[in-house]
Amino acid sequence: MPYNEEIDARIRKLVSRWKNSDAKKMFGGVCHLLNGNMVCGVYKDYLLLRLGEKASAEALKQSYARPFDITGKPMKGWVMVDGTGFKTDEKLKSWLIKAKTFVKTLPSK
Questions:
Q1: Pick from 64, 76, 77, 99: most CB atoms within 10 A?
Q2: Single pTM value for the model
């Protein structure tokens, strides 16, 4: 199944305003980077978010979130959110800000 391009368009609308951002096709979808570090992306119909271990553990308490695991080995600090978790642009923006805030703590690549 290809990635949901509508979700990616919604992400691009917000992320394109960030300095030092880029997008790359990865995981059979697309990921958005900040200073060379992955922040978020789209895999099938899921929003991928790099939140760090503490914030991802908190996010996983939500019924619409699950660990980012497409290979049988979950990626630490990442979550997959289904469409119910980011129906509105405000909710999507809130998730992206959380991911951006974490990624800004990482060294640039």
A1: 99
A2: 0.94
